[in-house]
Amino acid sequence: MPSTNKADKKAAVDAAAWMFNVVTSVGIIIVNKALMATYGFSFATTLTGLHFATTTLMTVVLRLLGYIQPSHLPYSELLKFIFFANFSIVGMNVSLMWNSVGFYQIAKLTMIPVSCLLEVVFDKIRYSRDTKLSILIVLLGVAVCTVTDVSVNAKGFAAAFVAVWSTALQQYYVHYLQRKYSLTSFNLLGHTAPAQAGSLLLLGPFLDYWLTSKRIDEFQFHFPSLAFLILSCTIAVGTNLSQFICIGRFTAVSFQVLGHMKTILVLILGFLFFGKEGLNMQVVVGMIIAVIGMIWYGNASSKPGGKERRSHSMSRNSQQKHGGSPESSEADEKV
To answer: What range(s) does the Sugar phosphate transporter domain occupy (predicted)?
Structure first.
């Protein structure tokens, strides 16, 4: 009975963490779309720097209130994380500029197999046949929804390659650092957010000028655009925190697979708030396929041996260390 209650509690917390991530991620996309499309604030990299600056302020306040305890993260590890994270942000922006929307979406889809490869190589994780097939169904559905015209050039391919690998490495590294140094999501944000905020606010205006030929100091703020900017930064605190929570509780692969539910929600909300001209049978069919794949993935990955099962040697070490099965130790992992 105690183990059942513990499993139920973990499932409830997992669901709450995931819903927190979905709500904040979809919300910030809608707000940023309005900020950029309606009010012309096209400085994406600088905006991300402001997001991390706001997140830094939140971690400082929580530390002063005693909600974040002191923790240690070596500077070498912090630098590697910032390197991957900033290349991810810059790479995605440049990839979107140099590639067609279709190829940009295809590149984003490849983050799942790349994340799988990282976990297979570094964590010795295995996947059941059903788990692999369910991932393919998710990818197919999202591709049908989002991929339209596809054209590629050498520099666009290079930008997409950097964006995909750096994003996959950054997300893998979140899970890795939390496990290795016993960091909570708040702890890890407390270490990484200030460094990301500083580096992106220094780099952002120059990169944004290169991408848009517009200077942020010449942007004419007024009340609506300033209100949306503040709202974007506020929601970003939850988005950044929920990403770390979800990757810490799950894995980068599960985060990517379930993350495509946000793509579906963004499409639906886009039709509701920004016009229904994009709603057609192809998009609807793609949504249905993707949702079926996500349900299948959840079922397949929850079965014994289906979800990222560790190799025999790592399982044996885990049993010796914790006195239990590898499945139970994975299920009991905390953020």
So the answer is: 23-297
